[in-house]
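Chain A, query sequence.
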Amino acid sequence: MKILVTPTSIKKDDDTPGLLRLRGFADELVFNPFGRPLTEDELIPLLQGCDGYIAGLDQISEKVLSACPSLRVISRYGTGMDRVDLKAAALHAIAVTNTPGANAQAVAELAFGLILSLARAIPRLHQSTKEGNWERHQGMELGGKTIGILGLGAIGKRLAKCCMGFGMAVVAYDPFIDRAFCEREGIQIETMQGLLQKADIISIHLPLNDETKNLINADTIGLLKDGALLINASRGGIVEEAAVFNALKTGKLGGLGLDAFETEPPSASPLLQLPNVVATPHTGAHTKEAVLKMQEMAVDNLIAVLSGEDCPYRIQAIGA
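Chain A, predicted structure.
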């Protein structure tokens, strides 16, 4: 068995349980030589002769899959499928799996950290104090505020509990809402429009697809309370960055916390020049605990498929 491993948080010399198990299963492991997500043209030569592929945030297109006839399984290290052509995988009889819930606590905590950072201007005041200043800045308390969570999956549910611990009211929108969870936890179910109108803070935890592309745009921003805070620790394409930039400049948005950008790295993004933007490098899932869980689940999924065993985390392409 030959396996390609591309997630940037998995290193060739790691001795983690997941990687040790993979070494025991495979005859040959090939690792990401670039230290970043791979393009189509970079993936194709690396995947030649591979039976399995533990995939990071690479561009896995029809072009890639048609050029790799030996490939039998793509085991996504994470949950997002926006960079995998699922229909092409189905046409080529390539199984696709993911690791739902493995990074949920990590991403939820990062999202909550972005909320706190914006509410109290922590990064800016930190830098100002180190520069010798002693500012008096009037921040915002979270207790009594309403958090609107767009996407109440594993991450959204954990974020809801974090926010409740700070005395916040929680409203949520999800096309597949868990009504039993909402009733048990006292979460108000809303339409997306209703959520945007009611929330003081909005946190996005939806997948990127045709329905959510540019979901946050000039029109939807117009529904928000003046000065609302917006958090995106999901996928960059959900937020139309030009519209958000304008809303931050006018004060319609009071602050923006981003762990995902339209283009990554976002070296030319004008958002990075604004004082009311807190940005992190798509690091929500990067905790020691989450990395170990994702590794083990991704390896288990890959081995199960290649061994002909049932895999509970196999993804079915719509229309396949």
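Residues 2-102+287-306 form a domain with the Rossmann fold fold (CATH 3.40.50.720). The longest helix spans residues 288-306.
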